[in-house]
From TrEMBL:
Catalytic reactions on record: 6-phospho-D-gluconate + NADP(+) = D-ribulose 5-phosphate + CO2 + NADPH
Source organism per UniProt: Cannabis sativa (Hemp)
Name of the featured protein: 6-phosphogluconate dehydrogenase, decarboxylating
Residues at the active site: K189 (proton acceptor), E196 (proton donor)
Organism ancestry: Eukaryota, Viridiplantae, Streptophyta, Embryophyta, Tracheophyta
EC number: 1.1.1.44
Annotated function: Catalyzes the oxidative decarboxylation of 6-phosphogluconate to ribulose 5-phosphate and CO(2), with concomitant reduction of NADP to NADPH.
Domain 6-phosphogluconate dehydrogenase C-terminal: 185-482
Keywords per UniProt: Gluconate utilization, NADP, Oxidoreductase, Pentose shunt
SMART domains, sorted: 6PGD
Positions of substrate binding: N109, S135, G136, G137, H192, N193, Y197, K267, R294, R460, H466
């Protein structure tokens, strides 16, 4: 066949939803691509789609050798298979036919240390390696994702022209940048997903308060979220939330959202984010609260039993299902909007601080403003205020926290009264808002120049002789607390 004599510019192995869509996106941008999948029907399916979607320059291959040899040197192969062992198996199958200078690019949600191990392993054969976070789901993969490649800089340069065309485009460039060395690309994508967990939790709490405290219908909620999406909260997640409330249930009455079981699934990146925050001693309470909520949502049966048991114990009917009387709807809607915005700033601040701590530990030299920029399009957390986050880091690359950026600080101060009203109202109504509470506690703890940690240090010194520092002179101190306290008691007794 004539066409097969021309070599492809790049290859892609792994043709599930993401792989197929990314391959078609690359072909659509005019780059001839070879594709391969162990299940041959997936190859045929992708070829069919390439024909249907405009006779795109896509070539199907049916074994690893033919696949690798159909790509021009230095070869670049993207793999999109399930994280873990399948990635190692795919690398083994392909690298047998690859040569020094060729590159493998893993586009999956991989644990960053696996990427660092693989960089070393393939390096022994002279093969270059990138771990590339890909965000935006299937639509992003097909029409323009946010891409986070980390690892070999040369491997990045070999495909930079392709990635620049394939990524989502925003006014200040394509949503891709070279992230840094090692597993930095995967780590950045992991934290992106952690921020996404926080974002989704906060939006669900806003919904819960508006529905169960304000008594708003789904059609009203659709309107409110659509309106919010035209202002400071403009983002992919707020936009899709507005759409969700409009969808009718074709299997019955009302809207589909009310028929969905309240159990949240997860793939693990949120859990990794919280674990890494703990390892690095970085506070990430909003992200942790969102993870805890997913765990609790999984206990559906236990929650139903708890509702029953507590009702029998005298707890009045679940307060959350009773619309509160005397609530000013218009004010509530505006308060919730402000609380959601302020809470989101805290969530993003936590994610950015985690990225900086890891960058310092690993010497990755991450560019925080550039990370915010590449998240402005294509990805799940894309939001208009990411441009403001970018500007904050441009103004001050060493910014300690988004909370103290002058612009964001002003906004949080302006919104704190509304934020406190929402959290207080939710608590009195018996509706849990763990994400908003965690964000507010984070803000309140971070802004206080003195905390009750002095008492904790005294306790640690009393039971474990851990010592403490003083505010009035340098050095480490230890006190015989119990002995001195008893002496004081005895002294008090003598005066009675």
């Amino acid at each position: 066949m004539e066409a097969s004599t021309a070599l492809s510019r790049i290859g892609l192995a792994g043709l599930a939803v993401m792989g197929q869509n990314l391959a078609l996106n690359i072909a659509d941008k005019g780059f001839p691509i070879s594709v391969y999948n162990r299940t041959t029907s997936k190859v045929d399916e992708t070829i069919d789609r390439a024909h249907q979607e405009g006779n795109l320059p896509l070539l199907g291959q049916y074994n690893p050798r033919d696949f690798v040899l159909s790509i021009q040197r230095p070869r670049s192969v993207i793999i999109l298979v399930k994280a873990g062992a399948p990635v190692d198996q795919t690398i083994a199958a392909l690298s047998d036919h690859m040569e020094p200078g060729d590159a493998i690019i893993d586009g999956g949600n991989e644990w960053y240390e696996n990427t660092e191990r693989r960089i070393k392993e393939v390096n022994e054969k002279g093969i270059l390696y990138l771990g590339m976070g890909v965000s935006g789901g299937e639509e992003g993969a097909r029409n323009g994702p946010s891409l986070m490649p980390g690892g070999s800089h040369q491997a990045y340069l070999n495909v930079q022209d392709i990635l620049h065309k394939v990524a989502a485009q925003v006014e200040d460039g394509p949503c891709v940048t070279y992230i840094g060395e090692g597993g930095s690309g995967n780590f950045v994508k992991m934290v992106h997903n952690g921020i996404e967990y926080g974002d989704m939790q906060l939006i669900s709490e806003a919904y819960d308060v508006l529905k169960n405290v304000g008594g708003l219908s789904n059609s009203e909620l659709a309107e409110i979220f659509a309106e919010w999406n035209r202002g400071e909260l403009e983002s992919f997640l707020v936009e899709i939330t507005a759409d969700i409330f409009k969808v009718k249930d074709d299997g019955g009455d009302g809207e589909l959202v009310d028929k969905i079981l309240d159990k949240t699934g997860m793939k693990g990146t949120g859990k990794w984010t919280v674990q890494q925050a703990a390892e690095l001693s970085v506070a990430a309470p909003t992200i942790a609260a969102s993870l805890d909520c997913r765990y609790l949502s999984g206990l559906k049966e236990e929650r139903e039993n708890a509702a029953k048991a507590l009702k029998e114990a005298g707890l009045k009917e679940e307060t959350g299902s009773v619309v509160m009387t005397g609530v000013d709807k218009k004010r509530l809607i505006d308060d919730v909007r402000q609380a959601l915005y302020a809470s989101k700033i805290c969530s993003y601040a936590q994610g950015m601080n985690l990225l900086r701590a890891k960058s310092n530990e690993k010497g990755w030299n991450l560019n925080m403003g550039e990370l915010a920029r590449i998240w402005k399009g294509g990805c799940i957390i894309r939001a208009v205020f990411l441009d403001r986050i970018k500007q904050a880091y441009v103004r001050n690359p060493n910014l300690a926290s988004l909370v103290v950026d002058p612009d964001f600080a002003r906004e949080m101060v302006q919104r704190q009264a509304a934020w406190r009203r929402v959290v207080g109202l939710a608590i009195s109504a018996g509706i849990s808002t763990p994400g908003m509470c965690a964000s507010l506690s984070y803000f309140d703890t971070y802004r206080r120049s003195r905390l009750p940690a002095n008492l904790v240090q005294a306790q640690r010194d009393l039971f474990g002789a851990h010592t403490y520092e003083r505010i009035d002179r340098p050095g480490a101190f230890h006190t015989e607390w119990t002995k001195l306290a008893r002496k004081t008691d005895a002294g008090v007794g003598a005066f009675n």
